[in-house]
Design a protein that fits this description.
Layout (H helix, E strand, L loop, with lengths): L9 H25 L1 H8 L3 H29 L1 H19 L5 H15 L3
Helix pairs in contact: 3-4, 3-5, 4-5
Length: 118
């Protein structure tokens, strides 16, 4: 089987897409901490609640690492990556629509669960 030559071959596109997705997932995990000076007063949060917010996302991230590994082993990594990218993108968008502390923690935990599959 002959590989397509040039920059836009399927392997290059896949690796480039995966690299950009990983970059955005890292930004999404850490960007909320940089936005705390703006987010905390808007939601009326204190530093304890900010810590809970970051911890919930980290716990969701680490718990789903095991589940994501099992799913990837069972169904194959390619079949798990696309749905997780779509769900992660939806969760990231929902972060901007959160109206209170509880909804923000729920959405960030949800995002942490699916970010781990990437």
């Amino acid at each position: 089987m002959e590989q397509k030559k040039g920059f836009w071959n399927p392997v290059t596109v896949l690796v480039s897409t995966y690299t950009v997705t990983l970059g955005f997932s890292a930004l999404d995990r850490l960007l909320i901490a940089m936005l705390f000076p703006f987010v905390l007063p808007e939601f009326g949060l204190d530093f304890t609640q900010a810590g809970i917010l970051m911890t919930c996302m980290a716990v969701g991230y680490f718990v789903f690492a095991f589940i994501g590994g099992v799913l990837s082993d069972k169904y194959g990594r390619k079949k798990v990556i696309l749905p997780s990218v779509l769900i992660f993108s939806l969760g990231s968008a929902l972060t901007g629509l959160a109206t209170g502390f509880a909804s923000l923690v729920g959405v960030r935990t949800f995002v942490g669960r699916f970010i781990r599959l990437l």
